[in-house]
Amino acid sequence: MCDTAVVVGTEGVLFAKNSDRDVNEAQFLDWRPREEHAAGVPLHCTWIEIPQVRETHAVLLSRPYWIWGAEIGANEHGVAIGNEAVFTRAPYAETGLTGMDLLRLGLERGATAREAVDVIVGLLEEHGQGGGCGHENRDFTYHNSFIVADPRQAFVLETAGRDSAVEPVEGARTISNALTIPEFARQHGERLRSRASRARSRHRRTAELALRATGPADMMSLLRDHGRGQRWPRYSWLSGAMSAPCVHAGGLVVVSQTTGSWVSELAPGSVRHWATGSAAPCLSLFKPVSVDQPVDTGPRPGERADAESLWWRHEALHRRVQRDPARLADVLLPERDAFEERWRTYAPPSDVAFKEADGLLERWTRRVSERAAADRRPVWVRRIWNQRNARAGLDPCAPLAG
Known about the structure:
Layout lengths: L1 E7 L4 E9 L5 E6 L2 E2 L5 E3 L4 E3 L3 E2 L2 E6 L7 E4 L4 E7 L12 H11 L3 H15 L15 E7 L4 E7 L2 E6 L2 E5 L6 H7 L3 H5 L2 H14 L3 H8 L33 E11 L2 E6 L11 E3 L20 H12 L3 H4 L4 H13 L4 H20 L9 H14 L10
Antiparallel strand pairs: 1-2, 1-14, 2-15, 3-8, 4-7, 5-6, 8-9, 9-10, 10-11, 11-12, 12-13, 15-16, 16-17
Helix pairs in contact: 1-2, 5-6, 7-10
């Protein structure tokens, strides 16, 4: 599941998204340059091929490792897009473009938010959406909604099969995993799976927080939020900690975890992005990223833990701390917050920031590993995480090498 928020102001646009996926569904930052192509050559997306266009824009994507498309991204023209799974009464196709494919195609082919919306709608009508979208369950499929933003405007685009509705944004607007454009929702909305995803609860909370947001720090706080009055996750047996934007897996029916997060500050002549490249924004560092500044974040991660990719290196920290965040998180949070504040004031080149972040991650992981802490989560949550850790080949309590 996911949450995306946007605030359209007189001087620019704020954009933020949490990507919520399966626990071991590693996500990575992927820089793609502007490219020229022979017209009409086949483009292989996640499940189907479509004709390529002559030129594609440079993009920076946050991608689940096995999908051609992306959960979040931006292009060289300052367009940023986030997508959400939505559940509708329209039929689900066995194959087609995934919502993540449509997001990437919108960024690669649209130089403004309006152009990107038109690209997505046109491709949706021509090719349809469909195919498996789940990591643990490849048969899991859904329809999609999007927030599409640039430095001057933003749109909510909602879909059901090949149908769509578009609404321009004024002020603050958020989407969470249910249709929100009133007439379109009345026509196509489905209640059961929207309720299971806790979409309404998260939508109310993100809308409340977005109304107060005046800068990127507020959008980062929105993505880190665990609910009113909650510093750390509150778990339910059904859906874990899915009732607030910072989602933590732990449900017996719905197992979803925030696996990547992104914030953009979009203004005419000035575009800045921050991305975690890691799960759990409450325990992650938002690093300055730019479409034109590729950074080596290690090899592309997969579903098994490794010691080289940024995403899995952060999991060695995240999965230790989440056992008892009230005791362990303060090892890193004051220093993390200080770095983010400094970077928001003066953002260094991305490679410099990532090098500093690597040093911090190593230091924090060692500090946390030196503290003994019992797992304070409910027994069913511990069981769910023990299963996923075993599948990934990761022992959060193992001594660190060296």
